[in-house]
Structures are given as C-alpha cells and as structure tokens.
C-alpha cells in the first residue's frame, strides 16, 4: 500500500479509525490524511464500510476507537460540525416544508444570516426550487436542495454518500461540474460511489475499502492525468 | 443570543409543521375528545361526582391526549431523517430542547383549551367554579408534563417500542406533578380547600425539571 | 487495540473464592436472622405473631434505598467519566434495589391484612415505596429496550438523575396530600415501641439482607464485566481477520 502523498498541511487526519456494530468490525484501523482542495473517490463493494466511514467523519456516529481531526477539531465537536457538510441518502429536509423554510432553519442552526440560503441555492443553481415543498420534488431536485443544505455554511470538508445514485445523465453532469468547482475553490470532497467511472478525470485521489480495511489510498491522480481533462 | 434564536426557530418550525400536517393534529384532538366522551359514559356525570373526583378525570383525559402530543415531539423529525440533520449541526442541544419544550407545551395547551369546555359541559361542572384557578393549574401542570415528556420523548426515540416506553418513563417521574395538578383542580371543582401549596409544588417541579432537562439535553440528543 | 487470544475454558474463575466466603456469611446471617425474628424476639403486644414480618419488611426497604443510592452515584460517575465499571455498578444496583423493594411491597400487604383488615393504604412510606418501585422498574425497562452499546448506559444514567431529583418532590407532595386527606397510619414510626431484643433481631436481619445484596450486586457486576471482556476478545479476533 502506497503511503498517501500530501503536499500541503493535511486538513483531515484519521488515525486507526475502528467502528464496531456489536462485535462486528465495520471499519478496521483506517488511517489516512487528506489535504485541502482535493476531490477523492471512495470505492469498495457493498458492506466494505464506505457509509460507516462517512458517518464517522460527519459525526453521525462515534468511532469505537481511533481519532479524526479536522484541522485541530475533533469530529463531532461543534467546530468540526461547523466545517463539515454531509450529503446522505436521506435529504435531511422535512417533506412538508418548502426548500426555503428548510434551509432557513438550517441557516439558523449554523449561526448564519438568512442571506446564506439564497447564496447556497445559487451555488447549486437551484433557485427555482425555493418555494417548492420538499415532498413534491423529484429525486434530482431533492438532491440539489440537499446539496444546498450542505453548502450553506461553506464547509471545508464535504462528504457525499453515493451522490450519483438514481440520477439522470443531465443531473449527474451538473453535479460533477458543481463538485469540480467546489474543489477548485479549495474544498476537500470525499465522495463514495459504486460507479468509479463517474469520478474519472475528476477525482484527485482514490480510496478503496474492503471489508472495513483501507486497501488503497492514492492521491495526486488528477495531476498524473492532467491533459486528459 | 444565538441560542435563543435557535430555540425560537425550532419552536416556530414545530408549530408550522403541526399546522401543515393538520391530519395529525385533527386526529390528536379527536382522540382527546373521544376520551372525554367515553369517560362521561364510564362515570356518571352528576355534578356531585364531578365535584369529588373531577380533578382526576380531567387530568387523565389530558394525559391521554398529552402523550400523543409528546410523542410527536421527535417523531416529527423522522420524515426525511431531519433528526440526523439536527444532530449533525453545531447547534447547542439545550437550545434545541428548549424550543421543543415550548412547542410541546403549546400543542398540549391547544388541545386542552378545547377539552376543558367540553369537560365542563359533559360533566356538569358548576358555574360558580373559579375558572381562573383551574386555568392556572392547567398551565403549570401542562408545563410540567411538557418538559419531562419532551425529554423522555427524546430518550425513547433511540429505543424499541418508542410509543410504549414514553408513558412508562414519563408517568413515574411525573407522579408528584400529577398529584399536585389533580389536587389543585379538585380544590376549585369542589370549592373547598386551598391550592397555594400545590401551585408552589408544581412551580418547583417546573423549575427543577426544566433546568435538569436543559442541563442533560446533550445526553439524549446525541449520536451513538 | 491489542489482540487477545481466547483461552480455552479452564474451569471456574479463580476469583470465585469470595463467593464461598460471602455466601456462607450471608447464609449464616439469614439463618440466625430467621431464628431471631421468628422465635427469639418477644411477641409484640398488640399485633401478635404477624408483627414478625416487620423484621423483613423494614430491612428490605432500607437495603433497597442503599442500592438506589449506589445507583445514583454510579450514574453520575458514568456521566462524568463514561467508565464501564460505573455502568456495571449502576445496572447491578438498580436490579438489586428492585428485588428488595419488591420484597418490601409484598410483605407490606401481607402484614397489613391480618392486622388492620386492609391490603393497602396510602400510608406515606408505602406510597413512596411504590413510586420508587415504579420508577426503577421503568429504568430496567429502558435498559432492556435500548440496544446494547454506548447509548444504553447514557440514557439510563440521565434517567437516574431525574429520579434523584424527583424523590424529594415526591416526598413533599405525598406528605402534603396526607395533611389534606388523612390516611390510616398503620405502620407507625420505624422505631416506635420496640423492645431492645427487637432491635437486635432487626439489625441482624438487616445485615443479612445487606450481605445478600452485596453478593447479588457483585455477581451481577462481574457478569457485566465478563460480558464486556468477552465482547472485547471477540472484537479483537474479528479485527485481525484473514486477509488482514
């Protein structure tokens, strides 16, 4: 296993992350570092622990042992939560409220003014969704609204759990462009997916999990493929 | 203060959600009405009986309705898994809990505001009764149930048989408050005795458990 | 996390010597207490032979209260330190407390019926006992219904804090209720009109219950810690699975 190349101060530092469900180890001593401003694909078969890793990084679950440091904040602390965005399977938006109502509430939770909502919707080109109830949205529209929720507080670390699942071609391309733009602006993005082709030419790195262990961790992919863009 | 804004936003969002999903509120209200009606069949609703045990009857009816309302406090956060969204945010848990305390309180009071006149009619409550005293008792007592009930609602969301566990957790702890509210209401229905000591006890219960619920909010509103 | 190899079964735990010692002591105290309570202590003037159940009724309550106090301390320690041993003490003491309080609540009516003709009355102490019993049974139910993990001990510890704060308020409410609605006082004060030999019998029976409580408590704590050790060993094995 190649040691990851980190050419700048690491943003995310994970040391021997382990998570058990009962006695079953979902993640086994996963260690890696990610710098700022990169897009890394997280791959692996079902049950490999991709979702679990993202849960731990987002602070949705606690590790059984090991540490996660975002800058100098532990994952799960208020500072880390302020700097992390997480796109899950569920949109985390209430179906009976409009997109704006949902986002305004989250803006308050993150200590942001109401103007942050407009900015986030503009960033995801979802302004037309503003007055619609989340329950009435299609999968792709809901994804866009959920992404706006993640970007409200301009996180340093963006975690995406299978973001391309059941999206049509056009929406996939929109999302790819959005992610590239965010990465170029300095965000660290970790996205898990079953279809690595969707991140081809886009990702700077790849992490492969198998049965809870980190099998491969390569960074600097894109620079190796510079010119293929 | 940012915390107050978060609590306020939680409150207004909860109220908005209850108004939007009116089916749920209607069902709760109707359930409460049914309880009072069934009681009036089960117990002879003569004025004498009401003067002797009306306090207990009223509060059992309020409890039945209240448990449904309290269960909503965090069940409301299940569609779209918004509970994870709340826990994901850096918002102080006490602020979230405070907002939920008040939204449960408002929801329960609304139901009780409809039940109380119905009870007065069906159970032939004397028109000479001092309603101000009863209303104050209802306010103090409802806050007691709202605070402890919302806290245990948060607790039981992590467990199996959530809706069953909520009353199992709430009722034992709420016993002193229930004794106080029933006795105080009884004072006014029977027009004898003094309610002051009961009110002081209820107020003490309210203060203590509001403080404890906020202090220990991080324990229940936490990730695994 | 270190890898620990599971050792093949080697027979009884080496530390089970304590149970031989304490078990014998408990048995001795229980037998002595039985003799003192049922035969040796003088018969009470008004209540006759039925009063003898008092030698079990009161110590059971006191032992239960001690157990619940231990539960409170263990719960607070758990909330501050998140230590497994604190949680083991908490769950064990809650279970022991419920057992003894159940004995107390059953012996109460058995005592009351032949003497006062009623099974139950809202006597202040009995009422408090019942409320406490209901609370701790709900505590045990919460533990049963929460999946094993980090969450269960945390929720239970918070609940125990609620109980602790609730008890004085309960006491005041019940006492005031009695001044408003006087109830027949049937059990009298704890030490009213006891002849000295009765104190001896009471003390021995209480010590017997405390010893029994200690044995049950320690057995339960060891069981809990053993389960943790087993889980840890299994986890360590599964962690370094084939294909490491």
Task: Provide the fold topology.
The complex is a heterotrimer of chains A (229), B (224) and C (244).
Chain A: E1 10-21, E2 24-35, E3 38-43, H1 50-58, E4 65-70, E5 73-74, H2 78-82, E6 84-87, H3 99-109, H4 115-123, H5 139-151, E7 157-161, H6 169-184, E8 188-192, E9 205-210, E10 213-219, H7 221-224
Chain B: H1 2-20, H2 22-42, H3 47-75, H4 82-88, H5 93-122, H6 131-156, H7 162-190, H8 196-215, H9 217-220
Helix pairs in contact in B: 1-5, 2-3, 2-5, 3-5, 3-6, 3-7, 5-6, 6-7, 6-8, 7-8
Chain C: H1 17-40, H2 54-81, H3 84-116, H4 124-145, H5 151-180, H6 196-239
Helix pairs in contact in C: 1-6, 2-3, 2-5, 2-6, 3-4, 3-6, 4-5
Describe the structure.
- Chain A is an alpha/beta fold.
- Chain A is 29% helix and 28% strand.
- Chain A contains seven helices and ten strands.
- Chain A has a six-stranded mixed sheet, sandwiched between helices. In chain A, strands 2-1-4-5 form a four-stranded antiparallel sheet.
- Chain B has one domain (2-220).
- Chain B has helices spanning 2-20, 22-42, 47-75, 82-88, 93-122, 131-156, 162-190, 196-215, 217-220.
- The longest helix of chain B has 30 residues, at 93-122.
- Chain C is an all-alpha fold and 244 residues long.
- In chain C, α1 (17-40) runs antiparallel to α6 (196-239).
- The two termini of chain C are 14 Å apart.
- In chain C, 33% of the residues are buried.
- Chains in contact: A-B, A-C, B-C.
- At the B-C interface, α6, α7 and α8 of B face α4 and α5 of C.
| Mean of all residue-level pLDDT scores of chain B | 91
Strand content of chain B: under 5%
What is the rounded Rg of chain B?
18 Å
Number of domains of chain B: 1
Secondary-structure element pattern of chain B, one letter each:
HHHHHHHHH
The SSE order of chain A reads EEEHEEHEHHHEHEEEH
Counting DSSP H or I runs of 4 or more residues, the number of helices of chain B is 9
Subunit organisation of the chains: heterotrimer
Shape designation of chain A: globular
Summarize the structure.
The complex is a heterotrimer of chains A (229), B (224) and C (244). Chain A has 229 residues and is α/β, with parallel strands linked by helices.
């Amino acid at each position: 296993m190649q040691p990851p190349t980190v050419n700048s101060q690491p943003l995310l530092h994970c040391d021997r992350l382990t998570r058990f469900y009962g006695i079953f180890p979902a993640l086994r001593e996963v260690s890696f570092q990610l710098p700022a401003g990169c897009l890394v694909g997280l791959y692996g078969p079902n049950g490999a622990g991709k979702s679990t890793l993202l849960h731990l990084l987002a602070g949705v679950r606690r590790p059984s042992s090991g540490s996660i440091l975002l800058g100098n904040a532990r994952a799960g602390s208020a500072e880390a939560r302020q700097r992390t965005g997480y796109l899950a399977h569920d949109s985390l938006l209430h179906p009976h409220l409009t997109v704006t109502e949902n986002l305004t509430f989250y803006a308050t939770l993150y200590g942001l003014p109401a103007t942050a909502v407009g900015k986030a919707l503009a960033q995801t080109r979802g302004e037309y969704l503003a007055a619609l109830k989340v329950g009435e949205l299609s999968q792709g529209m809901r994804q866009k609204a959920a992404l706006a929720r993640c970007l409200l507080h301009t996180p340093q670390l963006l975690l995406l759990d299978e973001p391309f699942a059941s999206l049509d071609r056009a929406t996939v391309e929109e999302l790819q462009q959005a992610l590239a733009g965010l990465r170029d602006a300095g965000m660290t993005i970790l996205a898990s997916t079953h279809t690595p082709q969707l991140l081809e030419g886009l990702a700077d790195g790849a992490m492969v999990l198998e049965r809870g262990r980190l099998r491969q961790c390569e960074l600097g992919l894109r620079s190796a493929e510079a010119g293929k863009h | 203060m940012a915390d107050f804004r978060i609590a306020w936003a939680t409150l207004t969002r909860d109220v908005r959600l209850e108004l939007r999903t009116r089916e749920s509120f209607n069902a709760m209200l109707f359930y409460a009405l049914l309880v009072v009606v069934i009681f009036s069949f089960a117990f002879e609703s003569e004025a004498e009986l009401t003067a002797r045990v009306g306090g207990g009857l009223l509060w059992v009816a309020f409890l039945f309705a209240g448990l449904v309302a309290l269960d909503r406090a965090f069940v409301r956060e299940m569609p779209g898994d918004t509970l994870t969204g709340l826990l994901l945010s850096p918002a102080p848990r006490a602020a979230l809990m405070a907002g939920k305390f008040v939204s449960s309180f408002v929801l329960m009071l609304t139901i009780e505001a409809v039940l109380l006149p119905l009870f007065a009619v069906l159970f032939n409550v004397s028109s000479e009764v001092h309603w101000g005293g009863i209303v104050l008792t209802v306010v103090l007592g409802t806050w007691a149930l709202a605070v402890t009930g919302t806290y245990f609602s948060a607790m039981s969301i992590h467990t199996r048989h959530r809706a069953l566990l909520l009353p199992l957790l709430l009722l034992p702890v709420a016993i002193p408050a229930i004794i106080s509210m029933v006795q105080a209401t009884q004072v006014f229905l029977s027009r004898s005795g003094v309610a002051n000591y009961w009110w002081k006890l209820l107020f003490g219960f309210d203060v203590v458990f509001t403080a404890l619920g906020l202090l220990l909010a991080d324990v229940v509103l936490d990730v695994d | 996390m270190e890898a620990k190899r599971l050792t093949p079964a080697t027979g009884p735990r080496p530390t089970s010597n304590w149970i031989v010692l304490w078990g014998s002591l408990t048995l001795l105290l229980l037998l002595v207490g039985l003799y003192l309570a049922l035969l040796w202590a003088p018969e009470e003037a008004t209540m006759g032979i039925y009063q003898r159940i008092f030698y079990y009724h009161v110590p059971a309550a006191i032992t239960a209260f001690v157990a619940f106090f231990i539960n409170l301390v263990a719960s607070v320690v758990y909330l501050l330190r998140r230590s497994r041993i604190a949680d083991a003490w908490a769950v064990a003491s809650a279970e022991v407390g419920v057992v003894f309080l159940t004995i107390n609540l059953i012996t109460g009516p058995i005592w009351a019926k032949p003497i006062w003709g009623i099974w139950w009355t809202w006597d202040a102490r009995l009422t408090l006992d019942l409320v406490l019993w209901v609370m701790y049974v709900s505590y045990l139910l919460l533990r049963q219904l929460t999946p094993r993990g980090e969450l269960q001990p945390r929720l239970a510890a918070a609940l125990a804090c609620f109980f602790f704060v609730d008890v004085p308020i309960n006491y005041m409410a019940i006492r005031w209720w009695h001044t408003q609605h006087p109830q027949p006082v049937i059990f009298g004060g704890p030490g009213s009109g006891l002849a000295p030999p009765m104190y001896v019998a009471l003390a021995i029976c209480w010590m017997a219950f405390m010893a029994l409580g200690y044995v049950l408590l320690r057995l339960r704590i060891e069981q809990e810690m053993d389960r943790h050790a087993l889980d840890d060993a299994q986890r360590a094995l599964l962690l370094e699975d084939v294909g490491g």
